[in-house]
Amino acid sequence: MSVINLLSAEKREGLGKRAVAGLRAAGKVPGVVQEHGKESQSVFVEGREILKAFAGAGKSQAIDLTIGTTKKLVLIKEIQFVNLKPEVEHVVFQALKADEPVDAEVPVRIVGEVPAEANRLVLLHTLEALEVRALPKDLPEALEVSAEKLIEVDDKVLISDIKLPVGVELVELLATADDEEKREEFLSQPIAIVKEASVVESDEGTEAQEGLEGEASETETGDTDSTGSDVKDS
User: For residue 5, which of 63, 139, 209, 224 is within the disulfide window of CB 3.0 to 4.6 Å?
Assistant: First the structure.
């Protein structure tokens, strides 16, 4: 890995709601830089620039962040988006040291052609990312696993099928180093599985219906609460 993103930030003095609202109105995003053993530093970045940085780095690639005259190597640790808008509301950076391992969430990617798709089957992804530990320079853009054995219904690829790059370890395996049963259970989790298209469509339809029912229930509850409040206030 090499640093692929440059980003500029400014120190943030105003910390109240009014100050934050003013920043957002000007197209800027409030954030903090967290560094082990030090107090968090409040900053702000340009809204468009943080979108570009996140698109390129995600949460797994280092960013060269300039704060005034100071430069820090950071990861995007947390990022909060404005509801239903492609706008960032708040961002948390984690400062890194080049010679110290860091934990990061890395996407899992199926690579190569999926043989099952030629048979009109579909691939259902069940795991999107894994937490790894590595030096900043060794953090991978993604963890890759070959699609070559995804041929028939119920064929799957597991976490154990991932070939980790040199210098990269899975955090869960480090945490369960003395528990072989838990390690095996973790490694046997599927990343993706081949299914009939009709099965996937049925599952998606069920999830969508449950979502609509949940929204309707919340609306009814909200109406009831509002009515109760009106009666109480009057």
Answer: 63
Asked if the 102-198 domain carries CATH number 3.30.565.10, the reply is no
Domain ranges of the chain: 5-95, 102-198
CATH architecture classification, 5-95: Beta Barrel (2.40)
CA 14 from chain centre, in angstroms, equals 29
**Mind listing the pLDDT tens digit for each residue in 8-51?**
999 988 778 888 888 888 999 999 999 988 999 999 999 999 99
Between CA 43 and CA 61 the distance in angstroms is: 20
The label of the residue with tokens 């043989």 reads: 115
- pLDDT tens track for 117-157: 998 999 999 999 999 999 999 999 999 999 999 999 999 99
- b/e string for 42-76 if b means 16 or more Cβ within 10 A? bbbbbbebbbebbeebbbbbbbebebeeeebbbbb
Please provide residue 114's backbone torsions phi and psi, each rounded to the nearest 5 degrees.
Answer: -95, 110
How far is 76 from 106, CA to CA, in rounded Å? 12
**In the numeric block, which tokens belong to residue 127?**
């795991």
